[in-house]
Amino acid sequence: MTTELKELLDSNKQWAADTETREPGFFSRLLKQQTPQYLWIGCADSRVPANELVNLLPGELFVHRNVANVVVHSDLNCLSVMQFAVDALKVKHVIVVGHSGCGGVKAALNDTRTGLADNWLRHVQDVRNHHQEWLDGLAPAQRVDALCELNVLEQARNACQTTVVQDAWARGQEIVVHGWVYGLHNGLLEDLRITAASAEQVGPAFARALSAVKLRYDGQRLQSAD
């Protein structure tokens, strides 16, 4: 096993050279400004590289990631990122992004002990518990991805309810919150349609999105039963 990680440093040099060749002056321009329009709050899973999924360059997407893309009001790390993105960078969109087959969500669903992260995943278990009866009615193979989507909806609603977003809306700042899910099996992002641009839109947007998710999975369950 290497201890110097030379292969990564060499890859970085090649990437920097290729980037400068492709876009001369890129790093000089990047040094002078950071003006992303989007804040991505996603899972820390290495298979979900935020910039690459939406084909954006460094400086175009502000990113916060944690296990199972959780947004909770006691997490000062996430809230600090949100505050800087909204107040200082003036991003216009906050996107909470989950993904299919999420290991953290699976552990929360099945009460699998993972260690210290169990305490963090209690937030996802709260989502599971709230929708437990409906989840139990799904085929076992559907439950992880269904909970992944329910978790996105709940965390997007949490993002809307943070003081950062609420204060921005109160002062008339343009902020739109979204909830998306990424399919590891096909590389595609799907908009779950929990889209809110004001405090008044949060409740109705959540209700519509939740109904749409449940209708879709219920339809799949009925099809598989035929």
Automatic annotation (TrEMBL):
Listed InterPro entries: Carbonic_anhydrase (IPR001765), Carbonic_anhydrase_CS (IPR015892), Carbonic_anhydrase_sf (IPR036874)
Highest taxon in the source lineage: Bacteria
Keyword Zinc: yes
EC annotation from Swiss-Prot or TrEMBL: 4.2.1.1
Keyword terms, alphabetized: Lyase, Metal-binding, Zinc
Entry cofactors: Zn(2+)
Pfam families: Pro_CA (PF00484)
Enzyme class: lyase
Keyword Ribosomal protein annotated: no
Catalytic activity of the protein: hydrogencarbonate + H(+) = CO2 + H2O
Function, as annotated: Reversible hydration of carbon dioxide.
Family (UniProt): Belongs to the beta-class carbonic anhydrase family.
Stated name of the protein: Carbonic anhydrase
High-level lineage: Bacteria, Pseudomonadati, Pseudomonadota, Betaproteobacteria, Burkholderiales
Gene expressing this chain: can
